[in-house]
Amino acid sequence: MKLTLKVWRQKDAKSKGEFVTYVADDVQDDMSFLEMLDVVNEGLIHKGEEPIAFDNDCREGICGTCGFVINGQAHGPRARTTVCQLHMRTFKDGDTLVLEPWRAEAFPVVKDLVVDRTAFDRVIAAGGFITAPTGSAPDGNAVPVPKENADLAMDAAACIGCGACVAACPNASAMLFVSAKVSHLGLLPQGQPERPERIRSMVAKMDAEGFGTCTNHGECEAACPKGIRMEFIARMNADFVRASMASGRREAAGDGGSG
Amino acid sequence: MELKSNVPSGPIERKWDKHRFEMKLVNPANKRKHTIIMVGSGLAGAGGAASMAELGYHVKCFCYQDSPRRAHSIAAQGGINAAKNYRNDGDSVFRLFYDTVKGGDFRSREANVYRLAQVSVNIIDQCVAQGVPFAREYGGLLDNRSFGGAQVSRTFYARGQTGQQLLLGAYQALERQIGLGQVTMYSRHEMQDLVVVDGRARGVVVRDMVTGEVQTHLADAVVLATGGYGNVFYLATYAKGCNATAIWRAYKKGAAFANPCFTQIHPTCIPVTGEYQSKLTLMSESLRNDGRIWVPKAKGDQRPPNQIPKEERDYYLERMYPSFGNLVPRDVASRAAKHVCDEGRGVGPTGYGVYLDFHDAIQRLGKKKIEEKYGNLFEMYERITDEDPYKVPMRIYPATHYTMGGLWVDYNLMSTIPGLFVLGEANFSDHGANRLGASALMQGLADGYFIIPYTIGNYLAREKFAAVPADHPEVRAAEQAVADRTARLLSIRGQRTATSFHRELGKILWEHCGMARDKKGLEHALGKIPGLRAEFWKNVTVPGSGAELNQSLENAGRVADFLELGELMCLDALERDESCGCHFRLEHQMPDGEAKRNDEKFCNVAAWEYTGDGRKPNRLVEPLTYENVELTVRSYK
């Protein structure tokens, strides 16, 4: 099949970007979307032009590196699929596809379709962990975890940190991403001691990084390639209220207990 | 150069305890004064960086990805082994040790493997404490599954995403240390060279992949946890960015490279469909628990699988290996698949595929149970192939998946360059000539969480460190070499892309240094690779400049190194004139087609010492002695 691509080209974070039109000939059904772009890029290199920059790594939908917007949809039209796992059989001959990077203030464009998502790392560094220094752990079976909780924690932990939720959200909110981590750790007994502190720190960092607020559009869930559900946002909101009420108590305990 | 393994004396069960006591410690106040460089942020890298930072060292951690959470450990699906014996099925530290040594076809170092089995139990505890959501039973305790090469159930898992969950645990521990200021993280930075001063590793030269800036970072020790080199084959299950540059530069600075020809071909990957193919996708070995592998009995049988009656199918693994059946080790399963396809009994459009069939398991357990166990894998298969594995058997074929070879390290995980440590898949240490499933995650975390934090202290405590000036001649030389090489790649402006060279190299290696090797083929490959490399340096084209994000330049640099490494692999395969594990020399096989070892001549590690471009490297040998297991013919029948 033959496709027309309108691709966002931007030299670097400071330069102005624009759409440039390319034609992709001889596209095979079994190609992945990124393999189709590989072929376009090989052609550009042969013509002495700069290839289209896009992030990618594992190409099996788990590392979360790839992602851009195809015709207005983060990761393209197929539900629960990263762009590296999207195959060209999804499209038909003659289609025109518009490719853009994730658009969000917290994710500045690095080049073409590549954006800087280190804001996500900083949100995790603010509290998205369980403090368990190496060597200090009790036996793995010392604390039983109900299977339902473990399974639900795993549903939340499946987040790959690709940023599609932010890109899809009209407010560029990171609530689905943050709530997935808060829920994953908060559902497990090991995550309880830091639960109030974790959510307060992560939410504060999320706001400071310039992500918007959640107004329950639900675009995030629709775009998420791993099927992370909005119920985790509800869970996080409830947790946040609880943590806010508990905050005074915890600080008081900290004041008296140090030293 | 001499290879001193530094394995402690005494009985094997006591070696690590004894060594831990004998190693020198760095007192907490002095730990603050040391900076350690960690290159790589996978299980070994992130785990090691976080653990050393927890001890009080300052760590600088580098990765080429945009975030440390993307390291390719994330793609491991099936699970992680540990000798917990929670199943009460006869497992023990000694059994895990024995299975691993035997699985590696008696080409690994006993003491290292025993230590790996010992610390395996701590790994699970550590991961649970971090919040890794392992699969659990209804009673709330940890669940297990079986894996190839073992007759006990010792594999812990988190659906089909075990690597992801373990990595996120290590990544979160790392991010915590970044937040505390103990680790400085440099993402989108790629190591380009190693700085060796007065014979000790003291720093790295890296390229900031966004600005193109070449920077030098100095430290008291350098740790490489940069993964394997399987992308040398071009088509592999690795992430596209995985590369050998860090270990290859270290090799050229004096780190011996051990057993480069030991590359694992995984039996269950989705077959190749076309020339544009950029990578191959693995289907977890855990599928072999419930899937049955077969091909038609008759050659060229074109009927759809559901129209081939049971009696006309050859469940060849069950037939050839009745006691392990579909769960034979990877090298055995891969070779058997190649064998039936070479006979003309392969399936699918190319004839290079075999069926992995869940029909019987679905009948026995129900679709729901199968979905619970393998749902995400089935979904992934369906996305790629457009076929529903609940209805039609999967088609699979072997693909490059892991490299057992890597930089040579001693018992302390230190290379032949003092102060340069190597962890995880980047070293050669634990898997011999074949790695068993669910052991890579175990080794990565063992090295990172439980070994390097001890052994690095022993090194730092025994040495004295004066600051290396930024204008030291060795630093300047390394920076200049990096700048020159980048300029050279950009100046050629030839006719071919780096990818086209990479693909060609991959085909040569797959054909002659893949699942089956012989003298004639290896000599042929050794004749071809230098010519291809010469053409690369005359005719490659790299657009753009060095002072920006330039993915073509990154790729070209990696391909240039693969073009050198591929030759060393063939040389190693040629000189190892025996068959063992993954290394199957057609000249050396049993009457039934199994690998035939030559323990008299090759019960050893071959480590290669760089002697200059265009010169044949030196082959050094570390003899392997087996005091606790008997060298036997590996049998899974």
Descriptive report:
The complex is a heterodimer of chains A (about 260) and B (about 625). By secondary structure, chain A is α+β, with helices and mostly antiparallel strands. Chain A folds into 2 domains: about 5-110, Ubiquitin-like (UB roll), CATH 3.10.20.30; about 115-255, Alpha-helical ferredoxin (Fumarate Reductase Iron-sulfur Protein, Chain B, domain 2). Chain A is about 40% helix and about 10% strand. Chain A has 8 helices and 7 strands. In chain A, the strands form 2 sheets. In chain A, strands 2-1-5-3-4 form a 5-stranded mixed β-sheet. Chain A has a two-stranded antiparallel sheet with strand order 6-7. In chain A, helix 2 (about 120-125) runs antiparallel to helix 6 (about 195-210). Chain A is elongated. The model of chain B has no long low-confidence stretch (mean pLDDT about 95). Chain B has helices at about 15-20, 30, 45-55, 95-105, 110-130, 160-180, 245-250, 315-320, 330-345, 360-365, 365-385, 440-460, 475-490, 500-510, 520-540, 550-575, 600, and strands spanning about 35-40, 60, 80, 155, 185, 190-195, 200-210, 215-220, 220-225, 255-260, 265-270, 290-295, 315, 355, 395-405, 405, 420, 605-610, 620-625. In chain B, about 35% of the residues lie in helices and about 15% in strands. Among the domains of chain B are: about 265-400, Alpha-Beta Complex (Flavocytochrome C3, Chain A, domain 1), CATH 3.90.700.10; about 475-615, Fumarate reductase/succinate dehydrogenase flavoprotein-like, C-terminal domain (Methane Monooxygenase Hydroxylase, Chain G, domain 1, Up-down Bundle), CATH 1.20.58.100. The chains are: A alpha+beta (about 260), B alpha+beta (about 625).
